[in-house]
Amino acid sequence: QVQLMESGGGSVQDGGTLRLSCAAPGHTYTCMGWFRQLPGKEREGVARLYTNGRGSYYADSVKGRFTISQDRAKDMLYLDMDRLKPEDTGMYYCAAAGQGTVTTFGHCGFRDWGRGTQVTVSS
Predict the structure, then answer these.
(1) Distance between CA 1 and CA 73 in Å, rounded?
(2) Gyration radius of the chain over CA positions
(3) Which terminus of the chain is less hemmed in, N or C, by CB atoms within 10 Å?
(4) Which residues, 6 or more positions from 118, have their beta carbon under 8 angstroms from its beta carbon?
(5) What whole-number distance in Å separates Cα of residue 120 and Cα of residue 10?
(6) Which residues have a Cβ under 8 Å from the Cβ of 116 and sit 6 or more positions away?
(7) Residue from 104, 120, 121 nearest 31 by CA
(8) Residue 73: helix, strand or coil by DSSP?
(9) What is the pLDDT along the chain (123 residues), one digit of tens a residue?
């Protein structure tokens, strides 16, 4: 049983910044990532990393603006979001790879999900 918990969402102005955090205490994963669900849209991958440090992957829509990182000692995953746009508004989810995955992104299969944290960017 995996427990993931996101935090750091909020409301910012167009061009603003936010840092999302995901706590995954006591667990080890090959891949961890961030997804989002925009209003009226399907859930989509945003960014992911290999927890061994061997590379990150970003959706084209956020490349150059968002940065995924981890703190292995603290079992934490982060998403630094810069130059936010109104079209970034949505629910953001921390995700981890595992057996029996259904959702794929960046060549990782994701199974476990956090509850989500809302990001709202005002125009």
Answers:
(1) 21
(2) 13
(3) N
(4) 9, 10, 90, 91, 92
(5) 6
(6) 6, 37, 91, 92, 93
(7) 104
(8) helix
(9) 568 999 999 999 999 999 999 998 866 788 999 999 999 999 999 999 999 888 999 999 999 999 999 998 899 999 999 999 999 999 999 999 977 777 999 999 999 999 999 999 999
